[in-house]
Amino acid sequence: MRLLCGAHDGQTGVFAVTGDSAVNLTAAEPGFGADLSAMIASAELRAKAQALAAQPGVVEVSAITPALPVAAPPTIICLGLNYVEHIKEGGYDIPDYPALFMRGRNSLMAAGAPMVRPSCSEKLDYEAELMLIIGKRGRHIAEEDAFDHVFGYTVFNDGSVRDYQRKTHQWTPGKNFDATGAVGPVVVTPDELPPGAAGLRIESRVGDEILQSSNTSNMIWGVARTIAILSEYTTLEPGDHIALGTPPGVGHAKKPNPRWLKPGETVEIEIEGIGICASPVVAEGAQQAAQ
């Protein structure tokens, strides 16, 4: 299934998408709620969604304003260095264990919502990433069992404020500015994609300018290995988000001059078979004035 959470006719719900149209699952069954949390928790709802998704869509996808797939993810874990060429362009040594950091809820926003360049920095960078959503609780998950714990896959733009990322050895400040991490809009269940979402083209662009272009098969730590590594130290919970790192071509590594995102631009992240996450870039002051 291809699932989209968003607002239509003043109501927020869950939609099953086929092509340019969608079925409003929440309108058919209020138990689906406003995001994917209920479906993640209920095998019965997932079965109902499959049946409803087979019906002809009556809502135009273009008329739905996307919302976050999970309004309040329990945990958001990100891999920082997962493509060899990206590691090299950043001047790092290739690690034997993934670089990990966490994001807070306020740093995320739905696809289509503005990505905010903060007033304290002009060094807002883009990072195209595959993101998975955990569907089943687990600890010490074996690689061969890892796919059983995946609810679905989506697109993530790990917007990074580079000068603040490098203020400390930990990357927390640069990765947690409000409204810099775009998620969605569509979540695709694993049955619609290759195992582990491998072999998919992943790109970032602004207009006709292609900024990054790679393939998810180039990840050092794939989905199964990542889940096994993370579950060694923490219990993964339904609704947890895991971002799987970015390929080469990020703005700070462009030569001879870095390529920062500017207010007025729209940055798009596309992953083959999943979709496009588009974000207009705005300055923090302009965003505050509009509220």
TrEMBL record:
Keyword presence, DNA repair: no
BP term (GO), one: carboxylic acid metabolic process
SUPFAM superfamilies membership: FAH
Domain of life: Bacteria
Residue intervals passing through the bilayer: none
Gene3D superfamilies the UniProt entry points to: Fumarylacetoacetase-like, C-terminal domain
Hydrolase found in the keyword field: yes
Residue intervals of the Fumarylacetoacetase-like C-terminal domain: 75-282
MF annotations from Gene Ontology: hydrolase activity; isomerase activity; metal ion binding
Keywords of the record: Hydrolase, Metal-binding
Family: Belongs to the FAH family.
PANTHER family tied to this protein: FUMARYLACETOACETATE HYDROLASE DOMAIN-CONTAINING PROTEIN 2A, FUMARYLACETOACETATE HYDROLASE DOMAIN-CONTAINING PROTEIN 2A-RELATED
Protein name: Fumarylacetoacetate hydrolase family protein
Organism lineage string: Bacteria, Pseudomonadati, Pseudomonadota, Alphaproteobacteria, Rhodobacterales
